[in-house]
Design goal:
Layout: H1 3-14, H2 19-23, H3 33-56, H4 67-75, H5 98-116, E1 127-130, E2 134-137, H6 138-162
Antiparallel strand pairs: 1-2
Helix pairs in contact: 1-5, 3-5, 3-6
């Protein structure tokens, strides 16, 4: 499934949630579905900002990925494990409406379409550091968006099960 189709699937699924279901938290430390969507959108937009930064760079970066980054890209995605974010990153908004999240996904798709044909024109030696995965180039940042959305499919299924969907 392409990244665009994956995001379309998230958009379609978003429409089936009531406002109460979107914000429902089974436990204090468990995100709501709305928080997961907010997280996905914000992280993807940040990754696209890093694609832009790579394009604007004018100095080659000789450093590469960390061991975790090498593993992630060799697997083509995240391993099927839950990842605990640092506390300061673990607070996505739980107040976004279905409409606001849909607009966010639409904007993300538009930006991704703008980059799809030109991401490979960015010098692969121009990189931006990721705290966990090391120095990534524009193509790697772009590909990370789809990997991240696929990773959260398991969480989405789990949250939907808690809602009885």
């Amino acid at each position: 499934m392409s990244d665009q189709m994956l995001i379309e699937t998230y958009k379609d699924d978003l429409q089936k949630y009531s406002p109460e279901q979107l914000r429902y938290k089974a436990e204090q430390r468990v995100w709501s579905i709305g928080q997961m969507y907010d997280h996905l959108i914000l992280v993807a937009l940040e990754y696209l900002d890093n694609v832009e930064t790579c394009k604007a760079a004018d100095v080659k970066q000789p450093l590469g990925k960390t061991e975790a980054g090498e593993e992630l890209f060799s697997l083509g995605g995240f391993p099927p494990v839950k990842i605990k974010l640092p506390d300061h990153l673990d607070l996505p908004s739980n107040s976004e409406s279905k409409e606001e999240l849909t607009v966010g996904l639409d904007q993300l798709q538009q930006k991704m379409m703008e980059w799809e044909d030109k991401v490979d024109t960015v010098n692969p030696d121009y990189k931006v550091v990721h705290n966990g995965f090391g120095w990534l180039n524009a193509r790697e940042w772009f590909d990370l968006i789809g990997m991240h959305f696929r990773h959260h499919l398991r969480q989405k299924d789990e949250l939907e099960q808690r809602l009885g969907l």
